[in-house]
């Protein structure tokens, strides 16, 4: 007996019939939502449509977002990320409801869960709701969006707004802007114009607006995903005088050849520590996005050092360095107290130890660690006035507190600035940062523009940037096992709790290795266990990673081929 009105129950009945849950699958909410083979996701999308509507109703009709994407995963996969009205990821209490709904097989189960969620929020089924939804370039997108739309149509009074092909950060931006008009205009033009204007003004304030500094050529690897058309549209909107000339490769223009995330993009570059084949020869500065353009890493091929990667740790370090030294100008001028604005960098266990040492010892920054997943880093960063957060894989952004904005507004209004040009320039630059950086979520385009601006303002080459610190040699690899859910971790993913005894075995492998560090955690986006190792030489890091991978493979029923060399 359904607890919902008959018309809604009829919609649920039709939806369950069209989008039945496959019997054999148990759905779980991973690092960034539901993600798996696209063929298994139709029923999940239908239910996510219902859930997104409930979440919006529970929040008084504030707009929420749904992004159909599997980001860095291969083409046959797909997934879904849910966005809160503030642009954040879905709150944990709704992750639990999402999992329960995804695993419901019958109309009664689903109706009960929907009714309970509405009751918990004290909201009627016909309360108003608004949901913006978009998708990346995957061939399964249209089918899964249709299932999502069926779910969005289950409850009455849902304003379902399709935004089509967008990057994940664009969807986050559109959602946040539609709830907070002061954040920006909630259109893709609004997104482009905001970034173009903020970047241009930042260059001018930083004394780099006249194109005097030749930043050299920039290639952008679009991972054959949505980031390529998104960046092309921004550059077209900016016009020929824009102080950024980028050549986009791996742009997905020929789907037969340009396969999403295949030998392309940030995950390929970071995981394999090599350039995509199409950029193997260039000595120019290169940036690589992932499939939904919410991560970016840089790299270049040095004539002397070979392939040089500038990953999320290097992005965080350059951003933190630039912000803290610009802020110091205001402190030195007596316009901001030394301890007035707190700054921290949030990292995960994948952060290279050399970056943490640099941030703590050279910059004097507070460094905090969280579990993997931008949702964890984002929330930790919000505790500071300036929260720089990056995963080594290139996911991240900077968030600024209301106090930061008020402080910069106060400084900007100070008449003494008129006679202190360096302080005036510093204040203008810092005041622009909340617009340059997409504070809703990590955004490959916005992060790239910020980095490009810093390089120009500081007159830095990519090699200068790389020299901020020297990474400890490291290796990231993955192992497929029969059941990755038997792996549980603690201490921000740095230690295994289960399988029992495996952490002791890892410790024994690490102990004899000079400057050795290694950890193991189950991926929340792929059916693998990830292995990370660091040591004082690349050979030692590789050997440690192989030994830990073998341990995982042997003791946890490895599947397929075990990696035996890099
Ligand atoms: C998602 C998350 C990231 C995480 C990555 C890999 O990124 O948003 O925070 O680092 O998955 O996670 P895992 O190691 O659990 O597979 P994306 O770009 O794939 O959406």
UniProtKB/TrEMBL annotation:
Residues 62-100 form the Alpha-D-phosphohexomutase alpha/beta/alpha domain. Pfam families: AMG1_II, AMG1_III, PGM_PMM_I, PGM_PMM_IV. Gene3D superfamilies: Alpha-D-Glucose-1,6-Bisphosphate, subunit A, domain 3, Alpha-D-phosphohexomutase, C-terminal domain. Keywords: Isomerase, Magnesium, Metal-binding, Phosphoprotein. The keyword Metal-binding applies. Signal peptide: none annotated. Mg(2+) binds at residues 71, 290, 292, 294. Binds 1 Mg(2+) ion per subunit. InterPro entries: A-D-PHexomutase_a/b/a-I, A-D-PHexomutase_a/b/a-I/II/III, A-D-PHexomutase_C, A-D-PHexomutase_C_sf, A-D-PHexomutase_CS, AMG1_II, AMG1_III, PAGM. It catalyses: N-acetyl-alpha-D-glucosamine 1-phosphate = N-acetyl-D-glucosamine 6-phosphate. Substrate binds at residues 391-393, 521-525, 530. Pathway: Nucleotide-sugar biosynthesis; UDP-N-acetyl-alpha-D-glucosamine biosynthesis; N-acetyl-alpha-D-glucosamine 1-phosphate from alpha-D-glucosamine 6-phosphate (route I): step 2/2. Residues 505-550 form the Alpha-D-phosphohexomutase C-terminal domain. GO terms for biological process: carbohydrate metabolic process; UDP-N-acetylglucosamine biosynthetic process. Belongs to the phosphohexose mutase family. This is Phosphoacetylglucosamine mutase. It comes from Thecamonas trahens ATCC 50062. The lineage of its organism: Eukaryota, Apusozoa, Apusomonadida, Apusomonadidae, Thecamonas.
């Amino acid at each position: 007996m359904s607890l919902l009105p008959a018309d809604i129950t009829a919609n649920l009945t039709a939806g369950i019939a069209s989008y039945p849950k496959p019997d054999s699958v148990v759905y779980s909410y991973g690092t960034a939502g539901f993600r798996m083979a696209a063929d298994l996701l139709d029923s999940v999308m239908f239910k996510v449509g219902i859930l997104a509507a409930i979440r919006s109703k529970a929040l008084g009709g504030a707009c929420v977002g749904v992004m159909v994407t599997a980001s860095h995963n291969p083409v046959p996969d797909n997934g879904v990320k849910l966005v809160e009205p503030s642009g954040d990821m879905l709150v944990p209490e709704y992750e639990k409801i999402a999992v329960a709904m995804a695993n419901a097989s019958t109309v009664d189960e689903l109706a009960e869960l929907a009714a309970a969620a509405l009751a918990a929020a004290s909201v009627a089924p016909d309360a108003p709701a608004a949901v913006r939804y978009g998708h990346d370039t995957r061939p399964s997108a249209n089918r899964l969006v249709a299932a999502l739309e069926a779910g969005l149509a289950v409850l009455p009074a849902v304003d379902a707004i399709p935004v089509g092909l967008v990057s994940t950060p664009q969807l986050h931006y559109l959602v946040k802007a539609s709830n907070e008009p002061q954040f920006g205009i909630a259109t893709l033009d609004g997104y482009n114009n905001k970034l173009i204007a903020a970047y241009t003004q930042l260059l001018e304030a930083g004394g780099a607006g006249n194109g005097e500094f030749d930043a050299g050529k920039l290639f952008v690897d679009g991972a054959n995903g949505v980031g390529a058309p998104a960046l092309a549209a921004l550059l077209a909107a900016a016009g020929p005088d824009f102080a950024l000339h980028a050549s986009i490769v791996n742009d997905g223009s020929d789907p037969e050849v340009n396969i999403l995330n295949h030998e392309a993009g940030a995950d390929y570059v970071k995981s394999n520590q090599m350039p995509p084949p199409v950029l193997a020869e260039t000595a120019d500065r290169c940036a690589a996005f992932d499939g939904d353009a919410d991560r970016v890493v840089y790299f270049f091929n040095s004539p002397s050092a070979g392939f040089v990667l500038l990953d999320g740790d290097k992005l965080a370090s350059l951003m933190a360095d630039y912000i803290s030294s610009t802020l110091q100008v205001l402190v030195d001028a007596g316009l901001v107290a030394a301890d007035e604005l707190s700054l921290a960098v949030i990292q995960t266990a994948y952060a290279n130890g050399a970056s943490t040492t640099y941030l703590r010892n050279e910059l004097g920054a507070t460094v905090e660690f969280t579990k993997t997943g931008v949702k964890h880093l984002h929330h930790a960063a919000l505790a500071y006035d300036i929260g720089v957060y990056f995963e080594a894989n290139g996911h991240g952004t900077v968030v600024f507190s209301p106090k930061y904005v008020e402080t910069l507004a106060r400084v900007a209004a100070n008449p003494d600035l008129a006679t202190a040009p360096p302080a005036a320039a510093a204040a203008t630059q810092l005041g622009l940062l909340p617009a340059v950086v997409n504070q809703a979520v990590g955004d490959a385009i916005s992060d790239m523009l910020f980095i490009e601006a810093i390089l120009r303002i500081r007159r830095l080459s990519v090699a200068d940037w790389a020299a901020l610190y020297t990474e400890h040699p490291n290796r990231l690899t993955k192992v497929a096992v029969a059941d990755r859910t038997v792996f549980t971790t603690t201490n921000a993913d740095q230690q295994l709790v289960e399988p029992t005894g495996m952490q002791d075995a890892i410790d024994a492998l690490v102990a004899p290795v000079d400057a050795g560090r290694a950890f193991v955690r189950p991926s929340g986006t792929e059916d693998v266990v990830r292995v990370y190792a660091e040591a004082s030489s690349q050979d030692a890091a590789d050997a440690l990673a192989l030994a830990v991978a073998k341990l995982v493979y042997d003791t946890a029923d490895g599947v397929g081929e075990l990696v035996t060399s890099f």
